[in-house]
Structure formats: structure tokens, C-alpha cells
Amino acid sequence: MTSAPYVATLKDSTAVFKEDIFKGKILFCTGGGSGICKGMTEAMMRHGADAVIVGRKLDRLTQTANELSATTGRICIAAQADVRQPRMLKEAVEKTIAQFGKIDFVICGAAGNFLAPISGLSENAFKTVMEIDTLGTYNTIKATIAHVRRSKGSYIHVSATLHYKATPYQAHVSSAKAAVDALSAVLAVEEGPHGVRSNVIAPGPIGSTEGMQRLSSIAEGGVSRLPLGRVGDIQDVANATVFLFSEAASYITGQTVVVDGAMEHMRDFQLPYPQAVLDPGSVQKMIPGKL
Ligand code: COA
To answer: Does this entry carry the keyword Isomerase (predicted)?
Structure first.
């Protein structure tokens, strides 16, 4: 007799961690205007932190900042910056210091992605993703490190699991995220003696994100074969964020926390293989262009 597969519970972090653990703390989050990083920011605010969210589109950032302030009762402000521009990041940091006087936590989350084979990637396309993900992370670290040292704070870098195995159509993102992982590890070793921690969160496929929406036609129907019975939720990543920034994780640094319900261990390429490589036109309808 077979029993029904288990489906992992999904809890808000406030059901597990005290609501005031980040009271008086300041979070600086790139990419916080939407998606996973917005969820990470909201969770930190629900535990008492105030936040600055950084991104390219001021109207979307401002809307998100107002929404997060209203739903959490904490302060969230928007700072416009393209993470490829060190000067803009410096100004965003100055705005943070003018408002709050310090930075305790940094989430390096701004990222860019689209599906394309190497043969269809221009030099500029590859460079653009490397610049947003890798150089953007480096620039964010450089702009914030003096403040994070002062507060003996902590970094979380949002990476991926794509590069643990070769993922066709993702050469640019895989390269960029591998570099982010390396950067975080070096940061942990160099800054540990200053009291600063640095960790990576590597989400697997997360429902209701842009990336999953792009792959939705491919991902449909496979939930029953997932080890924990469901795809990941933004809340799962947010919960890991709360733990890693909390003092309960004070001896955890230089690590990657994979939030994917063990999907990495049974991952197949999500496009038909090798048809997708031999005849890119055959999967074109599954890969919407720029969102
Ligand atoms: N396939 C192949 N190349 C693509 C592409 C695709 N689907 N989308 C963009 N590119 C190429 C562009 O053609 C350009 O190269 P070119 O100058 O040789 O033509 C290069 O990438 C830069 O693109 P552009 O849109 O001009 O850069 P940008 O800085 O304005 O934006 C992104 C870069 C990655 C943010 C943008 O492509 C995008 O909006 N992506 C989808 C949304 C997204 O990434 N959200 C984040 C999810 S993690």
C-alpha cells in the first residue's frame, strides 16, 4: 500500500523566531524592489529591522518601500542605484547613513537573467549579466564594507544552484553566480577577524518569481516527484535569511545554504534535451524574450 507523499510545511519565520530579534538593526538590500529580495526584506522587517531597498526603477522601489512599511510597521526607504555604477551605490549608502546612521546587514541580491545558448549570446549579453550579478555584488561590498565592519554585521549573497552542474542556456548566469560564491567565501575569510560574516543563499526553483514564470510551461505537472512535495516559496528563502542574519548563526560564515528541498540532487535539464541544443527554434515558444 502506498501512502500520500509528504508536503513540507510553510511557516512564517515569526512562528519560530522572536519578533524583535532585529530591533534597531538596519538592512541594505539590492534588488529589494521585487521577488525574492523583497520577501527577504519583509521578513527582516517583521523581526524589527528597518531597511533600504536599492534598484534601478525608482517608482517600483518607492511603491514596494511604502507597502513594506505599511505591512510591517517598520521604516523602509527606496534608494535608486544601478549596481553596475559604484557612484550610484555610494550615494545609496550615503542616503542610508543620513537616514539611519549605520548598516548592519547587506543582501546582495540584484541580478539579471534570460535563457539563451552560448551560440545565441552576444559578448555584450554575457558581459551584462556578469556586470549585474558579479561586479554588482563586488561594488555593493565595496560601498558598504566600512559600515558593516563598524557594526560587526553580516552579508547574504543571493546565488543559484545552476552552476553545480552544467545547465544549458545559462552559461552567463552560471559563470556569474560561481564568481559570487567565490567572492562570498573570500569575504568571509578576510572579514572574519573584523567580526563580519558572509554567507550565500542558493535558492532552487522558487514559485511566483520571474524566473519560474518564464519556465512555467516546463515546470508544470512535476510537483509530485519533488522530494518535499512542493516547489520552493519566497518565504522559504526569507526564513533562511532570518536564521543566517540572526545570532543563532553567529558561527556560520563562508557557507552556502541551498534552499531547494533537495531538488538539486535530482535535477534534470528543464528543456527537452538534446532537441533544445540541436534545434533552438523548437523550444523558442517556451522561452519568452525579455520580461
Ligand atoms: N537572449 C539573448 N540576449 C539577450 C536577451 C535574450 N533573451 N535579453 C537581453 N539580451 C542581450 C541584449 O540583446 C544585449 O546585447 P546586445 O547589445 O549585443 O544586443 C545585452 O543582453 C544587454 O541587454 P539590455 O536589455 O540592453 O541590458 P539592460 O542592462 O537594460 O538589462 C537585463 C539587462 C538582464 C536586466 C535585461 O535583459 C532583462 O530585463 N532581463 C529580464 C529580467 C530580469 O533579468 N530580471 C531579473 C530576474 S533574476
So the answer is: no
